[in-house]
Amino acid sequence: MKHKCDQCDQPATYHSVKIVKGQKIEEHLCEAHAAQAGLVPKEAQAPINELLTKFVQLHSGMAGAQQELACDNCGMTFNEFREHSLLGCPECYRAFEAQLAPLLERAHEGATHHIGKVPRRAGADEHRQQRLLRMRKQLADAVAAEDYEQAARLRDEIRACEGSPT
Fold this sequence. Notes:
The protein is mainly α. Helix content is about 50%, strand content about 10%. α7 runs antiparallel to α8. A hairpin with a 2-residue loop joins β1 (about 15-20) and β2. The protein has eight helices and two strands. The chain has three domains: about 1-45; about 50-105, no CATH class; about 120-165. The chain has helices at about 30-35, 50-60, 60-70, 80-85, 90-95, 95-105, 125-145, 150-165; strands spanning about 15-20, 25-30. It has a two-stranded antiparallel sheet.
């Protein structure tokens, strides 16, 4: 059932129900009367995705610094990289190094330098070295986070791995 505004004959777009002293009080207002009563904002609200993006940027410190970052060689901005997930040139890695490092660490289990795949003919020794590097990085992270139980476990694993020939 469509309601009309309590104050005019326009269709009601604002509806409220209040319970006062056990009495149900319904109010139906059109857009204009709801705005006059201060119940509806006069300007349109931003979509939720814009609000969330601005909120995350504001609270992560990305709002000002990364919007202005640009590669000196190709002119690509960090925001363009975030939109397209592609860098413009090799110099972009240097220009955005501080912002890219955490992304690379997450993607490569703590590593920031490309190690590459190990050929099978290289044997288990290369795999052991990579595992040791990964565990040492995890140990440093655990000590920095003051997670001494995890650090002790990693220390023992590293010692066991260093002691074994394969």
